[in-house]
Amino acid sequence: MNSPAAMDGVAQQAAEWIVRLGTDDPQERQAAASGYAAWQAADPRHAVAAERLEKLMDGLEHIRRSGTQETARKALRAAPDAAWTRLQGSTVAILLVCALALSLSVWQVWQDDPAGRMLANLRTERGEWASHTLDDGSRLSLGGASEVSLDFNARQRTVKLLQGAILVNVASEAGRPFVVETEHGRIRALGTRFLVSKEAGCTRLGMRESRVEVRAAPAGFPAVVRAGESLAFGPACHEDPLPQPIDADLLEAAWQTHQMVVRDRPLGEVLDALARQRYGYIHYDREAIANIRVSAVLSLTDTDRSLQLLANSFPALRIRSLTPYLVVVSRKAER
């Protein structure tokens, strides 16, 4: 049986081929078409990826509404060398299909092992925001593409953030502490209002009111984070491991207007965050943009506008929307 990680890698490779096939140069496009055909024939997992994509498409409402589902299926079955030479014309649907393949690679993992996703008690989809009142009277707001599981018992109230971002307004209850957990550590509320976001390898905390105690995994020393401070913890965090000052009012305003505040963050991390809030895929070469760092307030509900803002702010960037589902970010060639 193919592992989820292996299939996710196949989807990544497919996206790389799509970018090459979208070149404006006819000779490069022809070479890419030949390479793509060889790639398909090199490993049976590549055919499996195409088959899975066809099944996944049956569940995508926006594809059904658009009437392009049958076109996409035909594109998957078409001979690659004939189809890709017409990519710039009527077969642009093929590009859409492969962009969806990569954007749904995590969904493929869900098919192989749905247990992890079933742990969530509360969840939101991309671009969806929701607020809930918990049994103890606490308020929990979820940002887009977020999932949490709840475990409230007589001794402790635990919210496990599986992915995404939450705003917590804790109801005071003596003798039953309120804890937020991620794989990177645990946050014990000593006050009322704070934000937590979880990304690959990093959890970020922003304090709006009062304070919390943080213990990073596996056995980190406790750190107290107070109102107007932030803390990042986890193996992939790039920030200072000590609490840092933040503008708590700006943080709150950004949450209420569905925006993201970033301060001196790598562009790749910012693109990843935007990609989680849109249907489709943002392709980029992480090494090529490694030295670009971003400080900005970006919309999470209008990610096209956020991408345009990044393009305007960094003249060296080239951002191309090949379809509504595939955006390619690259460095402009130096002259």
UniProtKB/TrEMBL annotation:
Top-level lineage group: Bacteria
Source lineage: Bacteria, Pseudomonadati, Pseudomonadota, Betaproteobacteria, Nitrosomonadales
Protein name: Uncharacterized protein
A Pfam family hit: FecR
Gene Ontology molecular function terms on file: sigma factor antagonist activity
